Amino acid sequence: MSDKTTSRNRMRKVVIGAAGLGAAMVVAACGGSVGGGSDAEITTVSKGDAKASGTLVISNWPLYIDENTVSNFEKDTGVKVKYVEDYNDNTGFFGKLRPQLEQGESGGRSIIVPTDWMASRMDGLGYLQHFSVPDDLPNVEANLRDDLKSPAFDPDRAFSVPWQSGMTGLIVRTDLAPDIRSINDLFDPKYKGKVTMLSELRDTVPLVMKADGINPDDATKEDWLKTIDKIESAAASGQIRDFTGNDYAGPMVRGDVVAAIGWSGDAVQLQADNPDIEYRMPTQGCILWSDNMVIPVGAPNPNAALEWINYVYDPEVAADIAEYVNYITPVDGAKEVLAKKDPELANNQLIFPSASYTADCSNQPSLDAADEQEIEQAFERAITG
Amino acid sequence: MSGGRRTLPYLLLFPGLLWLVVFFVIPLVYMGELSLRTGSLTEGFFFNWQFSNYSDVLSDYSQQFLRSFIYAGVATLLALLIAYPLSYAISFRGGKYRNLLLFLVVAPFFTTYLIRTIAWQTILTDQSPLVEFLASIGLTSNGRILDTPASVIAGLTYNFLPFMILPLYTSIDTLDRRLIEAAKDLYASSKTAFLKVTLPLTAPGIVAGTLLTFIPASGDYVNAYFLGGRNQAMIGNVIQSNYLVTSNYPAAAALAFILMLIILLLVVIYIRFAGSEALMGDEASAN
Question: In this predicted complex, what is the ipTM?
C-alpha cells in the first residue's frame, strides 16, 4: 500500500512541475489505475430482508441469452434490467474496466460474466464481492451441477456462479476438411493457410499440449513455452492462418478457413446457417470452461444482482436460456424441462454432454501466478507474427 | 495600443492551448512516466526509471516496426501514384463535374471506416472472382490475397487515399494555368512543362498528402487486424495487445513513444529533403 502511495505522490510532483495543479488532479485520477490491488479488503454482499427493486445492469457476452428471460425476470421481481452485451473478450473487457475497478467502481454494472481464470484473477486483485450468506442463493444451492460445485479457483463458490459452460475443440467444414479429427491434423501441410486457432491462451495451448501427450494440469512452465514455440513456428510458416476471437465464424462460412479451434456453442449456432459446419470432439478430448456471474466491487444494487443469479438457476429459466444459447447449462433439471419441449435439443451432446462424451476433456488450466505474465507475453508474441 | 489589445491574442490562443495541454501534454507526461515503470498487474507497476523497457520492446518488436513503416510507405507511394493523376484530371478535365467528382472522392466517408474495411474481407475472400483471376495470372501467394501483406497494403491505400487526393487537388487546382501556357510559349514540351512547372508548384500538395497518409497509416491497426490477421501485425496491433491483452502498460507506453519518435524523425528528414519551401509554400520562400 505504501509503495503505491509513494509512486503516486512522486508522479503527482512530476505533473505539477509540468502542467500545474489542475492538471495534476486529472492525472492523479488516472494514476490510481496503475497500481496492483491484491492488498484490497474483501467486501461481501448479502440480501438481508430487503426485497429486490430498482435497476440492475448486467454485462454479458453477445448472443448469450434468450429473448424472454430478462423481461420475465422484470415481470416477476419488479426489478428493471439493463442488459448490455459489451463483454467481448476477457482480456479486452478487463483492460477497459480495470481502471474503474481499481477505484472501487464497476461503471454501474452489478453483474459481469468472466471466464474461470479471469474471475480468479479479478478476485485476486480484490475486484469482486463475495457472497456472505448461502441462503441468498437457494436455487444455486439446489441446482448447481455437482461437477461445477468446487472448481480449483473458487472451491466454495464464494464469489462466482457459473452462467454457462462450454467446450473448446475443433470446428470443421465437413465438406472441405472431412478428415480432420485430431488437433494434430491442424498441423497437416495439406491444410496450410486454411486453419485458425483461438487467441485465448488457455484454450489453444492446452489443446495443442494434449495432442502432444502433455496433461495440461501437470504442465510446467517449460511445457507451456515449448508448446507456444510449436504454435509460433506453425504460424510463421503460414500453416496457421490467423488467431481469432469468435470472429472465426465469417471466414469459416466463406470457406477461407476449413478447420478452427473454436467453441462448441458457436458450432451449434453456425450449423443453423451452414449445415456443413460441425463441432468435432478432438480425439485427444476438449477443454472445458465456464463463464461465471460475479458481482464487482462498487456494484450498485447487489440485492437485485443476487436475485438475478438465483432466478436463472430455476430449471425452467435455465432451459429457456439453454434452448437459445446452445452451450452447456450448469443447472440440474434443465434437461428434463427441455426434453418435454424439444427432445432433440435435450439429447444434443454439445448442450447436455454425457460423462463419456467429455471423458478425455480437461478443465481449463489455471496458471501459476509467478509464470503467468511470462507465458502470456510469450503467447502474445507468438500469435503476433 | 491599449492593454486589451495586447492581451487579446493570448485570450484567443487560450482555448487552443488549454486543449493542447489537457489532451496532449498531460497524457504525454503520464505516458512517459508510465513507460519507465516496472512490475506486474498483481504487484502493481512502480516507477523506477526502467529505461530497459525501451530496449526490450525495440528488440522484441523490431520486425513489427519495420513492417509498419514498409506497409505505410508502400501504401503512401501507391496512393500518390493513384491520387496525382486523379486530382490532375479532376482539376484540368473535370469541367462542370468537378464538384461532383470531388464529392465522390469523399463519399466513402459516409460509411464508417470499420465497415468498409470489413467489406474488403468479402471482396478479397479466397473464393472471390477477383482473387481467382489474380491467382490465374500468378499474382497471388498460395492463391490468396486476404491475410497476406498485399491485402493490408491494399486496405491502407484504399482507406487513406482521400487524405492524399484532397491536398493534392487543392494545390493542383490553385496552380496558375498561365504559367503552363508561358512555358509552352517558351517552346517547352508538355512533358517539360509538367516537370519544370506543374510538379514543383504542386509539391506542397504532395508533401502534405504524403504526410497525411504516411503518419496515420504507420500507426494504423484496423487494416492489419481485419485484412492481415495476426501474421501481418503492425506496431499498432502490438501496442493494443500489450495494453489490453497482456496488461503490460509500461511496454505499451514505451512502444507508443518509440513510434512517435520514429515518425517524428522520418518527418523531419523528409521535410529537410523535400524542402520546407514545399511544405509551407509561398510563405516560406517569401520569408
Answer: 0.71
Residues A19, B25: C-beta atoms closer than 8 Å: yes
Of chain A residues 125-154, which have a CB less than 8 A from chain B?
Answer: 125
Q: How far is B236 from chain A (nearest CA, A)?
A: 11
- Alpha-carbon span A118 to B42, nearest angstrom: 13
Lowest mean pLDDT among A38-52, A359-373, B14-28: A38-52
pLDDT at A116 over 90: yes
pLDDT above 70 (res B211): yes
pLDDT bracket for residue B222 (50, 70, 90): very high
**pTM score, two decimals?**
0.78
| Closest residue in chain B to residue A10, using alpha carbons only | B47
DSSP A116-181: HHHHHHHHHTT-BPEE--GGG-HHHHHHB-GGGSS-TT-TT-SS-EEEEEEEEEEEEETTT-TT--
Looking at every residue in chain A, the average pLDDT score rounds to 86
User: Residues A150, A157: contact at Cβ < 8 Å?
Assistant: yes
The three-point CA angle A306-A312-A314 to 5° equals: 115
What does the DSSP 8-state code read for residue A115?
B
The answer to whether residue A237 neighbours chain B at the CB level (below 8 Å) is no
Which of A38, A236, A243 is nearest residue B42 as measured by Cβ atoms?
A38
CB proximity B249 to A under 8 Å: yes
CB A245 within 8 A of CB A198: yes
For chain B, the DSSP string reads: --HHHHHHHHHHHHHHHHHHIIIIIHHHHHHHHHHTEEEETTTEEEES--THHHHHHHHHSHHHHHHHHHHHHHHHHHHHHHHHHHHHHHHHH-GGGHHHHHHHHHGGGGS-HHHHHHHHHHHT-TTSHHHHHHHHTT-SBTTB-TTSHHHHHHHHHHHHHHHHHHHHHHHHHTS-HHHHHHHHHTT--HHHHIIIIIHHHTHHHHHHHHHHHHHHHHH--HHIIIII-GGG--HHHHHHIIIIIS--HHHHHHHHHHHHHHHHHHHHHHHHHH-HHHHHTHHHHH-
Flag whether residue B125 sits within 8 Å of chain A, measured between CB atoms: yes
- The SS3 assignment for A105 reads coil
Q: Is B64 on the interface with A (CB under 8 A)?
A: yes
Per-residue model confidence (pLDDT) at position A379:
93
Note whether A265 and A164 are within 8 A (CB).
yes
pLDDT per residue as tens digits for the range A241-251: 999 887 888 88
Question: For A9-50, how does the pLDDT look when each residue is reduced to its tens digit (9 = 90+)?
Answer: 333 333 333 333 333 333 333 433 444 444 446 778 777 667
Strands A259-263 and A44-45: unpaired
B117 pLDDT more than 90: yes
CA end-to-end span of chain B: 27
Q: State the pLDDT at residue A265.
A: 87
Buried b (16+ CB within 10 A) or exposed e, A217-250: eebeeebbbebbebbbebbeeebbbbbbebbbbb
Chain A positions in Cβ-Cβ contact with residue B47 (cut-off 8 Å): 7, 10-11
Cα distance between residue B152 and residue B200, in whole Å? 31
B-contacting residues in A 64-123 (Cβ below 8 Å): 91-92, 94-96, 98, 121
